[in-house]
């Protein structure tokens, strides 16, 4: 025997009902079928509204009833050929009489409410049975004659001994091919209609399936089955092929409302499996819920979430070591029929937190404050704290038990994304790890966890980029070019969600089209750095990274705010790392404290692995004694190309055109850029150096540094003789000019030097940089990093590498 239950949406329209009929017909070719039906979608709500209107003697009840009747008559006319089989007159006349009675009395008891609510299933099942009987031998059976309950109206308890016997005898005696029964309803000993509570039709199917030996139960609904997460929140959520009853119950309890947990109790007891299937995709296998342990040892089966949670905390020194406090707390809540969803208490016994449905928060606070009135007045208990607008996110899986590292991964993933955890609960079954978080973080949290625990196609990384100049443009081009490769090879989906230059900022939650970022930016809002950060934070996207490709102080001023939100910062802008030592240290500390990387590899040597190499030396316990370096791509290029055949100014201009200089080339020529770089290397090797302590011996006449950039070039031209004499002096001595930075014994210096042919620096061509680290381990022979040290392409590539590093942490 098949027991097939179809929910309200499956019965929601004439076409849906026809689809269900076709399915039932197909099943009936193999075995006898019991069909259990919910009311047509929305009908139970309408009936309860009808009862409320009648109770309130609101004349609108008549219109509600007429609308209900019309909907059912229309469906009947479409689906049933034989009008003589029409029981609707009788049903609706009984319902009208009932409502008149309610309206006259102005009162509707739970018993009467059940009678009204029962009409939905009675009508849908009669309609379906009449429709089907024209094709297959079909019998409508009244569940009230087969399911015996107590008299707790609204949530009646089933008497299984009587019910099982009634069901078995009924189906043994009859040999019909298809039976159609209303779900949700039963009757007490006196034959009065009762209802089985929320999810009642699932329950009816489970009761019948458990009572009939060999029955196979399928719950047909409007979703593909149990999903790994709520598909409305996680686009990559997948149908779970198989799971255990315990897992299904945990997932259902925490929001995955495919199955009402108490409804499956009878099946669990009889160790009988149930399959969830989708009426609108009948070819799919759906989800099989097993009664026995599964061979498949998947650790996390699904992630569930419930929103609208309130957390109440009872706290105070008067609770410590005194038995009975929790008993009183839970008693006070239970007396107000407030359901407790999650409980936490630390071993200090100083606080008990309980999560409840937010709608009950006010009542809960009143109840608990009343219960502890005396203690609160005496001060042994603090006034109750109640936080609303929260959510619970839970990882569920039978095989988490004894598997170390799951909570670590969960909390790590949430923490890296700046998701604050308000409460934690894990039972000793280790089947569920629940966390209470802010309601605004639910989407981000579930997506982060889904990426962390399921083989998703890729991890999504959301970039907020500032700066679309020389380097920024190349970065965007590289990102666009590598998008597919990253997704296929590294399973990373890099999206630029926010983009800004000095004039405009643009955001696109789904990611900007990188082929037309210029148009998007032009259509964007006016740039305001603070607003940019606020907007980026407000989007609250997972795996967000802020990328600074500007040379602006104001943009560097945003880092703290991002790091404090656990949003990593990748910067080629050197201003922050070379600011005061205390700022540098603050940024490093924030990065550590909030688990958000602060990467600035390109601050020294552009795309060369200079800071990373130094970091590896330091973290493995090496000590730096001396650093010697040529750190300016611009100056190396200029002195390599200035041979007296062209003016010095022309060569500097060429370096700028090649994209090697800072936006303001005076920073390069005046030595500031190199001083910043050696300062950063000194700090990364453990020194607490300040910028002003660096000895900078300028080679430019002071007049070059006054006025605008145009003035600078004009002055360079005027000072040609000065540059010519520097060149000639070096040439005569058989040397080459290099702008050298050194750091030793806590002191740093930058300046132009004439290098003789025996020195490593002599053979440094083009725009190359070189860094020589003398350390404990690299003593006689330094560790050398050398290569292209400036240029948009290599710098963008270094930023790209930093982004990938943050994405893979
Ligand atoms: N060139 C190189 O080889 C290397 C460069 N770097 C660093 O890269 C950074 C960028 O250099 P580069 O691309 O050459 O400079 P550009 O001047 O070409 O670009 C700077 C970008 O920053 C934007 N910008 C300016 N102010 C703001 C603001 N308030 N908010 C948002 N965006 C702003 C500019 O906007 P707009 O377009 O509107 O002017 C422009 O898009 C510098 O910090 C430099 O030190 C680091 C290593 C190597
Ligand atoms: N202007 C810089 C570029 C990178 O920092 C240089 O010339 O080296």
From TrEMBL:
Write out the entry's keywords from A to Z. Answer: Amino-acid biosynthesis, ATP-binding, Kinase, Lysine biosynthesis, Metal-binding, Methionine biosynthesis, Multifunctional enzyme, NAD, NADP, Nucleotide-binding, Oxidoreductase, Sodium, Threonine biosynthesis, Transferase
Q: Which reaction does it catalyse?
A: L-homoserine + NAD(+) = L-aspartate 4-semialdehyde + NADH + H(+); L-homoserine + NADP(+) = L-aspartate 4-semialdehyde + NADPH + H(+); L-aspartate + ATP = 4-phospho-L-aspartate + ADP
Described function: Bifunctional aspartate kinase and homoserine dehydrogenase that catalyzes the first and the third steps toward the synthesis of lysine, methionine and threonine from aspartate.
Subunit comment: Homotetramer.
Can you say what this protein is called? Bifunctional aspartate kinase/homoserine dehydrogenase I
Query: Which PANTHER family does the record match to this protein?
Result: HOMOSERINE DEHYDROGENASE, PTHR43070
Question: InterPro entries per the record?
Answer: AceGlu_kinase-like_sf (IPR036393), ACT-like_dom_sf (IPR045865), ACT_Aspartokinase (IPR054352), ACT_dom (IPR002912), AK-HD (IPR049638), Asp/Glu/Uridylate_kinase (IPR001048), Asp/hSer_DH_NAD-bd (IPR005106), Asp_kinase (IPR001341)
Keyword Hydrolase among UniProt keywords? no
Which family does the record claim for this protein? In the N-terminal section; belongs to the aspartokinase family.
Which cofactor is essential here?
A: a metal cation
Q: Where is the ACT domain?
A: 395-470
- GO terms classed as biological process: homoserine biosynthetic process; lysine biosynthetic process via diaminopimelate; methionine biosynthetic process; threonine biosynthetic process
Q: Which gene encodes it?
A: thrA
